[in-house]
Amino acid sequence: MPELPEVAALAEYLREHALYRPVARVDVASMSAVKTFDPPVQQLVGRVVTGAARYGKFLSVEFQDRPDDGLHLITHLSRAGWLRWHDSASTTPPKPGRGPLELRVHLDEVGGPGFDLTEAGTQKRLAVYLVRDPQDVPGIARLGPDALEITRDEFAQLLAGRSERLKTLLTEQSVLAGVGNAYSDEILHTAKLSPYATAGRLTEEQTDALYAALRSVLTDAVERSVGTKAAELKGEKRSGLRVHARTGLPCPVCGETVREVSFANKSFQYCPGCQTGGKPLADRRLSRLVR
Q1: What's the whole-model pTM score?
Q2: Which 3-state string (H, E, C) describes the chain?
Q3: In this predicted model, what pLDDT tens digit does every residue of 66-101 receive, in sequence order?
């Protein structure tokens, strides 16, 4: 799933390549992906791209045809969605339900440059909204403070008194916006904290370590990602991971084997040597298989 660093990089890529280009045509390949109907997406035709921004893990492309009439095309890429830039696209309108394409925006002219919103796999969860105000998107309206904007004191107040496990809290967008499954694994590994530690029970030193890890992991990932071509961002993300998606491999810090905890439709990874005093965490799905 694209998280804060990748979405920030996609927004920067669009600012570099799409700015001040007019919309020539919009092709909707999946009506179920478009979650709004007023204004209709065809109102983008003739408008000019004036910016791109990030709200948590939401990507916004901004359009105007006059100063007081802006529209925001906002997407949540979900687990398997992506934005693909094209220098020239097919002029033939896509057939609904065929392939990964969800929506295509032609810029300058039909068949010219632009971008596609795509989603791989069968679980279609990518969502597209066309709104006049980003706060009209329910997911954006519910976002907590941004993970790269929150101060240390605000972060400590956010943790205080909370009973959630750290892994849960870091990925809850209404609490802290922008962090997903992958970077929460990396943040907890860097902070040397168990994913199952209770958020409200951290010491001052642990809170300092967690906040420093939050800042360093995300800042480093943004610096690696921004400037990278959109097509190369997924590979760049994987290359920077130390524990996430590395089950069974040695931890690059201590050499201990990276372990995994699995749930029905997701999993997370951690290093027992760095994070849990050498003790493996309970994996209920694996326990059931063993019994």
Answers
A1: 0.92
A2: CCCHHHHHHHHHHHHHHCCCCEEEEEEECCHHHECCCCCCHHHHCCCEEEEEEEECCEEEEEEECCCCCEEEEEEECCCCEEEEEECCCCCCCCCCCCCCEEEEEEECCCCCCEEEEEECCCCCCCEEEEECCHHHCHHHHCCCCECCCCCHHHHHHHHCCCCCEHHHHHHCCCCCECCCHHHHHHHHHHHCCCCCCEHHHCCHHHHHHHHHHHHHHHHHHHHHHCCCCHHHHHHHHHHCCCCCCCCCCECCCCCCECEEEECCCCEEEECHHHHCCCCCCCCHHHHHHHC
A3: 777 899 999 999 988 999 999 998 899 988 877 899
